[in-house]
Amino acid sequence: MDFAAPLTDKQNKSDTITKIRTQLTQASLPADFKERLEEQMGRVETIIASTGYRPELDRDLEYIRFVSELPFARSSQDILDLHRAAEILNRNHYGLVTVKDRVLEYLSMLILNTHQGTRLKASVLAFVGLAGTGKTSLAYSIAESLGRQLIRLPFGGLGSVKELRGESRIRLEAEPGRLIKSIHATGYNNPVVLLDEIDRISEDARADVMGVLVELLDPEQNFAFMDYYIDYPFDLSKVLFIATANNTTNIATAVLDRLEVIEMPSYTDEEKITIGRQYILPKITKEAGVPQQMIVIDDNLWPDIVRPLGFDSGIRSLKRTIEGIVRKVAREMVEGRQGPFRITAQNMAQYLGA
Description:
By secondary structure, the protein is α/β, with parallel strands linked by helices. The protein has helices at residues 10-26, 31-51, 57-68, 82-92, 97-115, 135-146, 162-165, 178-186, 206-217, 253-256, 269-288, 302-306, 316-334, 348-352; strands spanning 124-128, 150-154, 192-196, 225-227, 232-234, 240-245, 259-263, 295-297, 341-343. Strand 4 (225-227) and strand 5 (232-234) form a beta hairpin. Helix 1 (10-26) packs antiparallel against helix 2 (31-51) and helix 2 packs antiparallel against helix 3. The two termini are 47 Å apart.
């Protein structure tokens, strides 16, 4: 949604005002907040009726439209099936037995609390480890297992708390914070929110952002999160927060106290070979439109594929190497060469670039 876009054309303005009024009337909002918005909408309509339309009213109308669409009372239906969750974790992640067990234990507590009509107040899962060890993808698997929308909020280089908290509408360029904008976009008040790389916040903003994180992660506070643009408490207690970090050095103690830190192990070469064969290669060939049987890689080449530049604790280099192989095969197919394409020690330089 473009908060700076003016409402142009007289008929369009009239139609927009009518639409916003209808939307506000039908919106499921807290009673006191809805009453406040209706008073504001009434003032806007009175001004327009008495003096004509004014461009500065665009901001008021945009605010009313945005907040009346917020899912104050709209939740998605959880899929509370631990066996399904285990299948998804095993399908999407090779190894990581201890990590997956802790995730399933966490989901078990969530399921029990849901059945009892209570809210889970356990510490927030925080996956900590080197790049490429599967931290972010685990969050996606958790969201998939619950049938929830996932919101990823990247904290790397976050330079101002305003990006998270929003700005007061006193400022002409004010917008909601990233979190509220993302919740607005999903249409549900219970997504999985991935707080990605919370150790990489800009040093200048770290103290302020850590303060907001304490509020987000604390079940005694997050039921009344205040975005300065919205200027009304929004209940985040149904949100399932998950955090990731490369290490905990730059994370405030108050934030760490609210996290259940799960260390992500590095992958061995043998594990990477299995991941490359059984997970990454099938996924990338499918995405590229290349039939998997068109690519045959000799077994003795996999050690070179998993270590193209030496040791790497994660699988990002492995993924990039396989992507390069698949791209080259895709080009050869389009240029008319017949497969299958066998990659051997003799032609490996052609596909691996080495």
